[in-house]
Amino acid sequence: MNKVKLKVFNIKYVMICILFTIICILTSFFISSNSNVFKSYYVNQLLGTNSTKGLMYMIGSENRYFAEEFHKEKGRASLESFLLSLSTNINVNDLRSLLTRELPNMNQFYSEILIAGEGTDYTNIPEESSIPLENIQDKGTAVKHPKSEKENNSNTQNNGENKVFIYHTHSWESFIPLIPGATKPDDASSTNNEVNITFVGNYLKQKLEEKGIGVSHDTTNMRDFLRNKNLNWAQSYKGSRQILQDKLAQDKNIMFPMDLHRDDARKNITTKNINGKNYARLYFILGRENPSFEKNKKIVTAINSYLDEKYYGLSRGIFIKDRKSGNGVYNQDLSPNALLIEMGGVDNTPEELYASVDALVEAFSHYYNEVVKKNN
User: Fold this and answer.
1) Under 8 Å between Cβ of 196 and 145
2) Where is the signal peptide (predicted)?
C-alpha cells in the first residue's frame, strides 16, 4: 500500500515539475524575444486556458469533488492530453487545433455566428488583420461632410449629458477611394482623421445629436498613442481600454461606449443596394470572454433585429469571438451596453457609409427611446 501511495505521489510531483518547467521556458522565450509581437499578450493567450485546466487537474487529483463542476462543464482531460495541449496548443478533442496554425485564415473558424445576415456563412466570416504601426502614414483626400441639421432641429435637447462615447481602437482604418494610388486593402490605412474611420465617427456623432442623444467622440491618433505607450498592434485593445476607462471615470453619464471599426472585406461583400440606394454593410462583434456577455448580447441583438426588419441585408450579422479568433473581450466588460461595430469595408465610399450610419442611428435611437427613456 505504501508503495502505491509513493508511486501516486511521484507521478503528481513529476507532473507539477513538468508543468512548471514548460511554463517557465515558454514564458522566458516570449518575454526575451526581440519582437514586440511575442509579449505578454501572447503569453496570456497561450496560458490563459491551459493554466486553469492544469490547476484544476492538480486540485482534482487531491479532492475530486472540488473540481467536479469544472470537469462537468469542460470535460475531464487526461494528463497526456493536457501536456500535449500546453506544449503544442493542440486539443485532441478539437480537430481545428490541428489545422489552425498550418492553413491560412483557419483561425476564423473559431468564431461563432450568433445571427447570420444575408449571405453570411463560415466562408466569408470576418477576420481581424494586422498592420505594422510603422506602415501607417498620414495620407488621403479630405472628405466633405453632409451639412448638419442640428441647428434646424428643435428636438435636439440632451440636458448637456453625454450618453454615448464613440472611440476607435484602430483609428487608422481607412478606405481605398479616399487614398490616392491605393488599390489593395493594405493601402487603406491612414492617421489622417479626414479619411479614416474617425470621419465616420464624426458623422455618427452628428446624427445622434440630431436625435437628442448626447455624444462624446474620441479622436485619438491610435498609432501614436500605442507607440507612446510602448504597445504594438496586438495590444491595441489594451491601449483603447485605457482611453475608455478614463472616460468612464470622468463622465458617469456615459452609458453606451461604441468602438467603431472598418472591415477588410471587399466591395462585393460589404455593399448592399436597398431600394436603389447603396449602403456600406455593417456587423457587430461580441467578446465571448466578457463576463457581461449576456447583457451585451441583449442590446446588440435588439439593434440588429431592427436593422433586419427595416433594412434587410444591411447587417452582415452578429459574430462571437473568443481569444482564439480575436481579443475575446474587446473592452466590453467595462459596460453592459458596450458595442463594437464594423462599418463597411475598404472599398466603400463616404456616401455609402453615411447611408449606413443613418440606418444605424435610426435603429439605435429606437432602442434608446424604447428602453432607456422608459426606464428613466
Assistant:
1) no
2) none
